[in-house]
TrEMBL record, chain A:
Substrates-to-products reaction catalysed: (1S,2R)-1-C-(indol-3-yl)glycerol 3-phosphate + L-serine = D-glyceraldehyde 3-phosphate + L-tryptophan + H2O
UniProt modified residues of type N6-(pyridoxal phosphate)lysine: K95
InterPro entries, A to Z: Trp_synth_b_CS, Trp_synth_beta, Trp_synth_beta/beta-like, TrpB-like_PALP, TrpB-like_PALP_sf
GO molecular function, one term: tryptophan synthase activity
Stored Pfam families: PALP
Protein's pathway: Amino-acid biosynthesis; L-tryptophan biosynthesis; L-tryptophan from chorismate: step 5/5
UniProt domain Tryptophan synthase beta chain-like PALP: residue ranges: 62-384
Keywords: Amino-acid biosynthesis, Aromatic amino acid biosynthesis, Lyase, Pyridoxal phosphate, Tryptophan biosynthesis
Main enzyme class: lyase
CDD domains referenced in this protein's UniProt entry, alphabetically: Trp-synth_B
Similarity annotation: Belongs to the TrpB family.
EC number: 4.2.1.20
Protein name: Tryptophan synthase beta chain
UniProtKB/TrEMBL annotation, chain B:
NCBIfam families documented for this protein: trpA
Lineage top rank: taxon: Bacteria
Enzyme class, first EC level, given as a word: lyase
Organism (species): Hymenobacter polaris
Keyword rRNA-binding included in the entry's annotation: no
UniProt key word Amino-acid biosynthesis: yes
GO molecular function: tryptophan synthase activity
Subunit organization: Tetramer of two alpha and two beta chains.
Protein name (database record): Tryptophan synthase alpha chain
Length: 401, 264
């Protein structure tokens, strides 16, 4: 799985992706982050770790997830669309690939308590799930506003035995939940592991999370080969909040330039409306949550409040690897509005009988925009299912009657 | 000579450093509070540059940061406020404390030039990695007469303490216990053992203890094995609960209360 050649898109020995990445953490977090940095590759590569990880992905998560040829959607768009069905993972999204991996790391580091942040609640549920499975204490920070708009996930976490703590600082959304989780880790430095839910945070988190999610593109390669006789699609589409499903879907294609990588960002009400989360369109280089990346900020370097209909994309930054993919032009970033995402969600539901998560709907909304030819193959990472978004979808039902 | 160097040459015990947030409680309170602290006998002053996402800070300082930002505080405005303070009788050593992103967006070189122009003596940037400092900023800071303070915590390994001590000038900021600012540190035997352990390392820099220092008892306990201590959240709470008219007297009383044995 490791690529030994120096790829400009993969983490270097200092923890950077070009100018992005690094570990910009206060000294209080240094021992924890250093412990992880010095051990993660060794731990992940151990045969015993891999055995347990693969076993759980198969028997507990339900992997491999199918690669599904969406015939009616393909006909509608005018190209060949395959859906990588991460929505069929246990708990309903790709997030659990990472939490399984990280809880195995935490156990091997002797940690007894897990802290996590969550936006839409998918990562929180995936974390609460693996904590229940392994018998570890679980504390999840969630923005007070997100707790209201994603109530079913709050209840799921509580049913799984996790303590859900509202983050009441700042905008009371994902960014603030992340701040609170980091503060909790600062206050509990020896017995706690912080399971970050995306490819963000200080090195080695972005690389570690991408490695755990890389199972997505590893499976796409063999499944696409079986379906079509070719291992590489022409396009891979994925949504990017922090960017963990995109990092996993892109992983094994990063150094194959003939595969076009497309990242969908949340434009919210529109990139220029002041109510948006389109980080590459609106942001510039800076430091957020422990890494150098691209983030939305004021002239004075204050992090600005993002907006998206989708709580999982409501984040003012992107992972440092994605910043590098954007800066080098390796990936194309497309801004998708709330309306375009809703259109795509209803389209997929009606054409294929699959209700996608609002996050995922942003990736689907790119399909008509990339101008793929009929004989070209497009893989969309269907990162999550839409049950959690039913309240939002219900508000718009009449518009799509 | 750098005012910090001068201070620690003349004073090796019971040094009191007080933190407050620039532009708080009101935008133009920065310099009046600075002057009151100097008059009250603070040995050095740490001015916080407010930030939207201060992860190392507890609720009290977070809220003061947010209020300062709501008041319109920026890095540029702070330098405007500090213009000419050295010509107007402010002699106390001044550190600027803040998170790296606003400094990077302002421009690190421009930031250093402004610090030098207004008479800032040092910086504390808790999320600036040591290796980034050494590679990119060390020479620049030194060229502008800026000393750099690094944090050490009870979890910091001895070898790293030595490394931070070698990179730092000014002083070493000893975080009293695991946590964010404003925590209720119980100055117990564990903290005492940690401070003794640091003392035994024989660092080249003076040491000041922060996080959870709020009164005479905690100040005394913290200073026993170190050069002195830092008060932040407790002072912010004082500013919150005091009217502008009573502030000067309240600050005098606060500083005298923390360090009752101090002979001015």
């Amino acid at each position: 799985m490791t690529t030994e050649t120096a790829s400009p898109y993969r983490v270097d020995t200092s923890g950077y992706y070009g100018p992005f990445g690094g570990a910009y953490v206060p000294e209080m977090l240094y021992p924890n982050v250093a412990e992880l940095r010095d051990n993660y590759l060794r731990l992940i590569d151990e045969p015993g770790f891999q055995r347990e990880f693969q076993q759980l992905l198969a028997d507990y998560v339900g992997r491999p997830t199918p690669l599904f040829l969406a015939k009616r959607l393909s006909a509608e768009i005018g190209t060949t669309v395959y859906l990588k069905r991460e929505d069929l993972c246990h708990t309903g999204a790709h997030k659990i690939n990472n939490t399984i991996g990280q809880i195995l790391v935490a156990q091997r580091l002797g940690k007894r308590r897990i802290v996590a942040e969550t936006g839409a609640g998918q990562h929180g549920v995936a974390t609460a799930t693996v904590c229940a499975l392994m018998g570890l204490e679980c504390i999840v920070y969630m923005g007070a506003i997100d707790m209201e708009r994603q109530k079913p996930n709050v209840d799921r976490m509580r049913m799984l035995g996790a303590q859900v703590v509202p983050a009441r600082s700042g905008s009371q959304t994902l960014k603030d939940a992340t701040n609170e989780a980091m503060r909790h880790w600062i206050s509990n430095p020896t017995d706690t592991h912080y399971i970050i839910g995306s490819v963000v945070g200080p090195h080695p988190y972005p690389d570690m999370v991408a490695r755990f999610q890389s199972v997505i593109s590893a499976e796409i390669i063999s499944q696409l080969l079986a379906h079509t006789g070719r291992a590489t699609p022409d396009y891979v589409l994925a949504c990017v909040g922090g960017g963990s499903n995109a990092a996993g879907a892109f992983y094994h294609y990063l150094d194959e330039p003939q595969v076009r990588l497309v990242a969908a960002e949340a434009a919210g009400q529109g990139v220029d409306t002041g109510h948006s989360a389109a980080t590459t369109a609106l942001g510039k280089p800076g430091i957020l949550h422990g890494s150098s990346t691209i983030l939305m900020q004021t002239e004075d370097g204050q992090v600005t409040e993002p907006y998206s209909i989708s709580a999982g994309l409501d984040y003012p930054g992107i992972g440092p690897q994605h910043a590098q993919l954007f800066a080098t032009g390796r990936a194309e970033f497309i801004s998708i509005t709330d309306r375009q995402a809703l259109d795509a969600a209803f389209q997929l539901s009606r054409l294929e009988g699959i209700i996608p998560a609002l996050e995922t709907a942003h990736a689907l909304a790119c399909l008509p925009l990339i101008k793929a030819k009929p004989d070209e193959v497009v893989v969309v990472c269907l990162s999550g299912r839409g049950d959690k978004d039913l309240a939002t979808y219900t508000k718009h039902l009449e518009e799509y009657a | 000579m750098n005012r910090l160097t001068n201070l620690f040459q003349h004073k090796t015990a019971d040094v009191l450093n007080v933190y407050f947030t620039a532009g708080f409680p009101a935008l133009h309170d920065t310099v009046p509070i600075l002057r009151s602290l100097q008059d009250a006998g603070a040995d050095l002053v740490e001015i916080g540059m407010p930030y939207s996402d201060p992860v190392a800070d507890g609720e009290t300082i977070q809220k003061s940061n947010q209020q300062a930002l709501d008041n319109g505080m920026t890095v540029g405005k702070l330098f405007e406020q500090l213009q000419d303070i050295r010509q107007q009788g402010i002699t106390v050593p001044i550190l600027l404390m803040g998170y790296l992103n606003p400094v990077v967006q302002y421009g690190v070189e421009r930031f250093c030039q402004q610090c030098q122009a207004v008479g800032v003596d040092g910086v504390i940037l808790p999320d600036m990695p040591l290796e980034v400092f050494e590679r990119e900023y060390k020479a620049l800071f030194a060229r502008h007469g800026l000393q750099t303070v690094f944090l050490v915590t009870p979890q910091t390994a001895p070898a790293r303490v030595q490394q931070l001590d070698a990179a730092a000038d000014g002083f070493i900021y000893l975080v009293a216990a695991a946590g964010t600012t404003g925590l209720q540190t119980n100055m117990n035997a564990d903290v005492d053992a940690y401070l003794q352990r640091i003392k035994a390392l024989g660092l080249r820099n003076p040491t000041l203890v922060g996080f959870g220092i709020s009164d005479a008892a905690s100040f005394r306990a913290a200073s026993r094995h170190t050069t002195g201590a830092i008060i932040g959240s407790a002072f912010i709470r004082l500013l919150q609960s005091t009217s502008a008219e009573q502030r000067d007297a309240a600050i005098r009383e606060f500083v005298a209360g923390v360090r009752p044995l101090q002979v001015a």
